[in-house]
Write a structure and sequence with these properties.
- By secondary structure, the chain is mainly beta.
- The chain has one domain.
- 3% of the residues lie in helices and 25% in strands.
- The strands form 6 sheets. Strands 16-17-15-14-18-19-21-20 form an 8-stranded mixed beta sheet, with no helix packed on it.
- The N and C termini lie close together (5 Å).
- The N terminus is likely disordered.
Amino acid sequence: MLIASLALAAGCASSGGAVGTASPSTAAPTTTAAPTTAQPSTAPPSTAPSSTAPPSTAPPSTAPLTTESGASANTAAAGESIVNSWSGTLVDPTALPIGNDFVSTNSSGIGTLYVCDAGNPNGGGAFAVGTWINEAAGTWDSTQKVKVHGEVSWPTASYSETNDGTNRVITAGGLPVDVLTGVFPVAVDDPAYSFDRNPNTITGNAFSVTLPSSPTDATASSCLPKGPIGVLRNGVSVFASVDALNRDAVAYETQDLCDGHPERSGTYHYHDVPSCLQEATVGSSTVVGFAFDGFPIVVERDASGALPTNADLDECHGRTSPIELDGAVVTMYHYSATLEFPYFMGCYRGSAQ
């Protein structure tokens, strides 16, 4: 069960930033936990991206889970590397589909984000459409998106993970380990201020969660709430990929150099697997975090370094295939990072804790 001091509110960039409790630094990042990502690779980065409320067990869908779509081929054996092959057409990072039309409150579906609420029309977030967004065409250019300025390190950041074979216990301080953030609230002279005046202050909202080491499928997929739906191995929470209005948060909201930002209680978070963590992974399979149903969140690539596409994944944005976990190659269900909406999770495949 989640034991949290996450005092969350509705709307990522709603007014009323919280008072900070952790001490940022502008020096090179230092941490109280070992870095959790590998050496940088040459694979192209993904883009990344706010909403709130504490994690909850979402009501089940009436539709049964489907099997994985696409014809992805995967092989793995002891001493051999994992080989991934994608069936879908790779997307253009300069013309990514905006996800607004692929948000559902009724059911899950491939390429769809299944959310638990219809959104708050008065919620915060970006107040102006970014110059990188072409609403008429329904696309956005991730290579031109404005990022919040600043390079702030968090020496008090921490992350720990233990696994006794039954339970995986994760404790995190809510601040990014060995990763820089931008300066929040967004400064008036920051170009991001013209689109998204996030007034919130990053604070250290520590939490602990106990997840099953061997998660199992629920009888049906379930919706994703606002607020934390998982945690990455740098100690930062991940939220579903929509803002308070249920718009594509990765496209519309502005984030910092590592694609994160705080909501109004001060919880720093991501809306996908951020570019800085993707760039720090090597090889074909890297577990970068865990959803609150226990299933891993994975950055996986084919031989060319490409991420999978929606066509290679099921309605919860995952698949069952070999991955590297806890020092071994195992075949299990996992969520997979992509360049296209919903970016890393479309619904809960298992039962959320």
